[in-house]
Automatic annotation (TrEMBL):
Gene3D superfamilies attached to this UniProt entry: NAD(P)-binding Rossmann-like Domain
Gene Ontology MF terms: oxidoreductase activity
Positions of transmembrane segments: none
Lineage: Bacteria, Pseudomonadati, Pseudomonadota, Alphaproteobacteria, Caulobacterales
A Pfam family annotated for this UniProt entry: adh_short_C2
Keyword Mitochondrion: no
Protein name: SDR family NAD(P)-dependent oxidoreductase
Superkingdom of source: Bacteria
EC number: 1.1.1.-
UniProt keyword terms in alphabetical order: Oxidoreductase
Family: Belongs to the short-chain dehydrogenases/reductases (SDR) family.
């Protein structure tokens, strides 16, 4: 199969649903072999079945990324199953509500373990493989507009995404001499399972759209298209950057009318 990622092998974390699954599907559609990683084994198997007819090698790896040893083993499993790893997407993430006065230390540690420590652990293991093999690979970390805009009741999540932006820059600088590019994607409001539940509330729907200049919620496929670009040779001179598919959210300093 020809495509912008033909001949390449990718690992996508948090690939059982939402943005991660959309990225895995887009990568396979562009000719890449793909390893899908997620802690939800049942939905992971469903995603694997959904890609079975893509004509590419598809590998499902159940893994809880909060376990650093399991995360490193998952990278080794992906390399063994695909033969190599040219592309990594650190997409897996989680939320734990709480502000500075009531967030528990356990929830803070749990969110940072998945959202920030795991991208370092998985990214380090993948980068070492790429350097050892002499591969000019691409690593993509999933950030958020909340790396820039804070939400008081999501202290741990916001903190983790701010860290992702800096992790991306430092990884990019450290790996540039090896020809490995590291970038991030910072989505705005995207129609994932979590947001679908929120949008059932008219008040929440109007609140979200009031701060979205394009006047609609983004789709996972729209984030996936950015990931394909960053993983491809089209982004060959980009590293250390965060791209924000956010419907104009970060440019907005007011609210817009909602129909």
């Amino acid at each position: 199969m020809s495509g912008r990622l033909s001949g390449r092998s990718a690992l996508v974390t948090g690939a059982a649903a939402g943005i991660g699954r959309a990225i895995a599907e887009a990568f396979a559609g562009e000719g890449a072999d793909v390893a899908l990683l997620d802690r939800d084994a049942e939905r992971l198997a469903e995603a694997e079945r959904g890609l079975a007819g893509s004509g590419r090698t598809i590998l499902a790896i159940p893994c809880d990324l909060a376990d650093a040893d399991a995360a490193r083993a998952a990278v080794a499993h992906a390399v063994q199953g695909l033969g190599k790893l040219d592309i990594l997407v650190n997409n897996a993430g989680m939320l734990a509500p709480g502000d500075v006065l009531n967030l528990s230390l356990e929830d803070f540690d749990r969110v940072l373990a998945v959202n920030l420590r795991a991208p370092f652990v998985v990214g380090q293991a993948a980068a070492r493989h790429m350097v050892e093999r002499g591969l000019k690979g691409a690593i993509i970390n999933m950030s958020s507009i909340n790396a820039v805009l804070a939400i008081p009741a999501q202290l741990a999540y916001v903190t983790s995404k701010g860290g992702i932006n800096q992790l991306t820059k430092t990884m990019a600088l450290g790996l540039a001499p090896h020809g490995i590019r590291v970038n991030a994607i910072g989505p705005g409001s995207i129609m994932t399972d979590i947001l679908k539940g929120v949008m059932d509330s008219e008040e929440a729907r109007r609140s979200i759209l009031a701060r979205t200049p394009l006047g609609r919620i983004g789709e996972p496929a729209e984030v996936a298209s950015v990931a394909v670009f960053l993983a491809s040779d089209e982004a060959s001179y980009m590293t250390g950057q965060t791209i924000y598919p956010d419907g104009g959210r970060l440019a907005l300093n007011y609210t817009v009318p909602v129909g």
